[in-house]
Every structure is written in structure tokens, then in C-alpha cells.
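Technical appendix A lists one of the benchmark inputs used to test multi-chain prediction within the project. The record comprises four sequence entries:
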Amino acid sequence: MPSSRPLRSDARRNREAVLTSAREAFLAGEPGIRVEEIARRAGVAVGTIYRHFDTREALVEEVYRHEVDELCAAPAALLDEHAPDEALRRFLLLLVEHAAVGKGMSVALEAIMATDSPVFGDARARMAQALDLLLGAGAASGAVRGDVNGRTLLRALGGVCGMRATDGWQDEAVRITGLLFDGLRFGAADAAPTAVTH
Amino acid sequence: MPSSRPLRSDARRNREAVLTSAREAFLAGEPGIRVEEIARRAGVAVGTIYRHFDTREALVEEVYRHEVDELCAAPAALLDEHAPDEALRRFLLLLVEHAAVGKGMSVALEAIMATDSPVFGDARARMAQALDLLLGAGAASGAVRGDVNGRTLLRALGGVCGMRATDGWQDEAVRITGLLFDGLRFGAADAAPTAVTH
DNA sequence: CCGTTTCCGGAATCAGGTTCATCTTACTGG
DNA sequence: CCAGTAAGATGAACCTGATTCCGGAAACGG
């Protein structure tokens, strides 16, 4: 019996309340919020949180699963409407944008992309797959070199997401993204370098 | 009076012992070692560590200051013996190599490059300056684009250093480095893309 | 050798995450 | 509508680790 019976009503309600409180806290820029405080805001006791999530990290992962799903769905949609290289470029910028949404998301993206945290293993794999889709299409059309895979690019992007809070970080993030984008096209296309501010 | 009188002999000895124990532990692959354990190995009490270092992080920083100095001195030496773009390429590879020396160094490099930790503010600034030297020379010779600064590149490299422990991570690190290198030359040179395995 | 000053030791304190024995509550069949 | 029971909730206690702090010990200057 893989999935036991559905959650009891109060359990479902509490679970939702915890996720909501956690999400709000993270997006509000307090990624380090204590478990006890999340519980307080959700109107439950800490024990309740641990009934639903194995560990604090597991809760964090759950909070961001939705965002990750959204991000992973983007490549297919972008390829529908744009040439492979343009789709790739847009996706990279999308990542930066998402990192900009809030410190919390940025922290999660960084953990997904730049670490080996087993907690985000699943998210990482899906993300790499999404990138593979773009890179494959780009390589097939000859606009992108074929010797880089999603996992590698994901790694390379890790640094971009760890830089919120710096003065003017968003410009810098766009610049780094452009750098990687150009690196990906190096020797595969005849386009001019991406405009990178002045 | 900026610098008070020299440390008492036993103080100097203990300080050294602590740094040595910490360095050995980090290089041996236990970056998370407890302060108490560092103290034990150095033959002192925890209080002694806190007399010399404000915080655990401060101790870590001190341990790596030497390595950082070494790394920061490299650009000038490389420019003496190689063309600007080749010097840049070699320096990027040198970073990967250093990250490979041990998990500890890798952790520190990552903290320096990819975060805003005030602890490494100094190291970060010096590193960015070192990269500026290389980028400036490259731009002047026309081999590298002129719109990227050291700080930005440092950020981009952050991800590379957070990937130890993955299977085959070193190859991947070299690949990412090559990607960035090519991105830096995009539109500025006529060379072929860096060989990046396949 | 004595008075000072600087250090050292290590138990106590603090901070957060995690656990667990006990009390509640939602669902169930009758 | 009600008792029985399993699922859920609680929150004080526990654990791990960093940091603090108050005597006691050691070095230095004379």
C-alpha cells in the first residue's frame, strides 16, 4: 500500500498553514527563520511541523518545489516560440529574474544549482533535464556548441544566484549570464557578442 | 597606538598551534570540524581560541589568508611569461586546481567568490583586483572583451568551487572554466573554442 | 623575587533543530 | 448520536555546537 489513506482534515489544514507561513517568511527575506517561529506564525507547535516534514530542509524544499516546477516547464514553452539559441538566452534570464523575486527563492536556487545537498537532488535533476532540452535544440540547430550538458551549465549558473543583496547585483547577474551564453555559442555561431551594458 | 605590544610568548605559540590544527583539519577534508575539537588537537581550551579569533569564521578566514595571498600573486607572474589571454586561461585553471587541493580550500574559495560573507570581504576585493589585472591586459591586447570586470568574473567562478565531491567534478570544473573563458573571448578574438572534451 | 598584565581553562550559557511521551481530535461502524 | 481507535497535536526535554566569562596561572618588567 504505497499511499495510505488521505490526511485527516486538521492535518491537511495545518500542513497548508505551515507551508504558507514558511513561504511568506522566505519571500519576505528571512531565509534563516527558526522552525519554532514558523510554527508560531502558522498557529501550531513545532512537533506538528516535524510530523509533516522530516527536517527543516525538507520543509524548505517543499516550499520551493512549486517554483522549481514552474521553472522546469519554461524551456519547452520557450522552444515553441523562439529559435533554440534565443530560447536558451531567455531561459537564463528567467533564472536571474526568479532569483530576483526574493532572497528566499535565490537561496533555494543557489542550493539547487551550486551544491550537492541531497535535499535538492530531485530539483537539480529536473532542472538539468530542462537545460538539456534547450542545449540539445541549440546544438541541433548549430547555434550552440554540443559539448556542454545541462548539469554543467547548472553548476556554472550557481554563482549567479548567490549574489543577491550586493549593490547592483542584478546587472551583474545579467552580465554573467551573457558571458555564459556567449561561451556556449563560441565557435558555433557567427552572431555578435551579447550586448553587456557599456 | 594601532598595534599593541607583541604577543606574549605562550600566546603566540598557542595561536600558531590553533591555526596549524585548523589548517590540517580543513585540508584533511573536515571543513565542519567543531571548535572544541580544534582546541583539543591544538592542546588548548576553547576559550583560548576565542581569545585569538572573534568567531569560528574568523579563524577559518585566517587559515585561508595565506592561500588567498598566493592566488592573488599569480596573475602578475603569469602575465610575465604568457600572452594576456593565455595568462587568463591559466589563472582560471589554477583556481580549479586550488579548489582541488582539498575540500577545505574549496569551501573557502566558494565563500570568497560566491557569497557576500563580510568575513571574506578583504579576500574578495584582492581577488577581484587580481582578475582585473588579467582582464585589463587581455582587453588591451584585443584578445578579451573589455566589458567584464574582475568582480563579475569572480562571481561567475563561484559555482565552480562549490562542486567538490561530485563524481568527476574536476572535469566539469575545467569545462565550466573553459565556457567562461570562451565567453570572455567571444567577439574579441578569432581563436577556436577551447577544447572541452566531448 | 614581586607586582602587573596578559593569558588560559573549562564549566556555564545560549541557540536552534529534533524527539518523544502524553493528551486531543477527527473519523468510523453500529 | 456515541463510544472506540488510530492519526494528529503538543511542548517540554534533549542534543549538538558556538560563544561567554570568571577565577587561576604564567610571562614580563624591574
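Chain A touches chain B at residues 110, 113-116, 145-148, 151-153, 155-160, 162-163, 165-166, 172, 175-176, 178-188, 192-193, 196-198 (CB under 8 Å). Residues 8-11, 34-36, 46-47, 50, 55-56 of chain A lie near DNA strand C (CB under 10 Å from a C1'). Comparable benchmark entries are summarised in Table A2.
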